[in-house]
Amino acid sequence: MDLNDVGVFMDRDGTVSKEIGYVNHPSRYELLPHTAAAIKKLNNYDIKAILATNQAGVARGYFEEEMITKVHNKLENLLAAEDAYLDEIYYCHHHPDVGEGKFNKDCDCRKPKPGMLLQGVKELGVDLEKSYMIGDKISDVEMAHRVDAQGILVLTGYGRGNYENDRDEWDTEPDYIAEDLLDAVEWILMDLGVTIDND
């Protein structure tokens, strides 16, 4: 089965890494357990592993845009140490209500708008109807559903609280609710009909 056009988009904070609020220094950035193992499974099947994250701390003046690059360099190094990698990293540094200049913008890339998913189509050739978005907020699921992708809610980060306290107010339902990123990836592989290699 050709999985080259399948994209698995992942939120960053609370999904791939610990949710600590705005990450204003690489030393504060830590992966969640099983993150590298989850991404390595995607790599093993040539499924595109793509980060898609809102980073409005730039627009809010909490840190310079360069800090996002530094944090993502650390992320890639942590993954590489476990023989895993991301095919692409997309981030939105805009905010519609705060910030100055180019950062103060009602853009198409801020989740739940699907601009970062559409970038994956343009730059990586993913087929969104075969693709997935994983995140710890229902806005991640909504983003996926806007472009006919599947949306998965993880219970890490804000996910468990979002699920237990706010689900009566959701406008959409996750296609799957996962304990963490690894659980989500294993469900995706089963959904794709892939025999999971647990080595």
From TrEMBL:
Requisite cofactors: Mg(2+); Zn(2+)
Family classification: Belongs to the gmhB family.
Chain sites annotated for binding Mg(2+): 11, 13, 136-137
GO BP term, example: carbohydrate metabolic process
Catalytic-site annotation from UniProt: 11 (nucleophile), 13 (proton donor)
SUPFAM superfamilies (UniProt xref): HAD-like
UniProt binding sites for Zn(2+): 92, 94, 107, 109
Tagged with keyword Cytoplasm: yes
A GO term, aspect molecular function: metal ion binding
Organism: Halanaerobacter jeridensis
Binding site for substrate: 11-13, 19-22, 53-56, 110-111, 137
Contributes to substrate recognition (site feature) positions: 110
UniProtKB keywords: Carbohydrate metabolism, Cytoplasm, Hydrolase, Magnesium, Metal-binding, Zinc
Upper taxonomic lineage: Bacteria, Bacillati, Bacillota, Clostridia, Halanaerobiales
Name the UniProt record assigns to this protein: D,D-heptose 1,7-bisphosphate phosphatase
InterPro entries assigned to the protein according to its UniProt record, in alphabetical order: HAD-like_sf, HAD-SF_hydro_IIIA, HAD_sf, Heptose_bisP_phosphatase, Histidinol-phos
